[in-house]
Amino acid sequence: MSTTFDDPDVHDLVVRTLGAVAARGLCCVQGFVLGDGTVTITELNVRIAGGFPLTEAAGADLVGQMVNGLFGLPIDHRRLVYRTGVFLTNYVETLAVGNATELERTDAPKGEAR
């Protein structure tokens, strides 16, 4: 589960990390905050990535402002603010596992799905 929050220590580490790698534009930074307050960044993507659905759900206009930037239009940084306390859970399921050659049905008439 992922949750949006606001923490000055996290903010400062993210800004320093993005600066250290000279990242510009739309970035996704993910990590953990331990119970003792230790902040660990585990992933940095200079693109839309795993945090995108949560950030959009929390009200940030990432796509709209990115498009503005791509076309040289003004970016409204107020539209990049998100609400805290919004959560996202993911569910992954394997639908089928098997031998791919078994999917080839030779008994279906031509034109039908196989």
Give a verbal description of the structure.
It is a single chain. The chain has 114 residues and is α+β, with helices and mostly antiparallel strands. It has three helices and four strands. The chain has helices spanning 8-20, 52-57, 62-70; strands at residues 2-3, 28-33, 39-45, 87-88. The strands form two sheets. It has a two-stranded antiparallel ribbon. Strands 2-3 form a two-stranded antiparallel sheet. The protein is extended. The model has no long low-confidence stretch (mean pLDDT 88).
Tags for this model:
25% helix; 4 strands; 114 residues; alpha+beta; two-stranded antiparallel sheet
Q: Find the structural class using helix and strand composition.
A: alpha+beta
Taken from the alpha-carbon principal axes, the silhouette is extended
Percent of sequence in beta strands: 5-15%
Low-pLDDT segments, ≥5 res: none
- In which range does the helix fraction lie? 10-25%
Strands in their spatial order, largest beta sheet: 1-4
Gyration radius, rounded: 21 Å
Largest sheet: 2 strands, antiparallel
Average residue pLDDT: 88
Tally of individual helices: 3
Number of strands: 4
What string, H for helix and E for strand, traces the elements in order?
EHEEHHE
Query: Termini distance?
Result: 38 Å
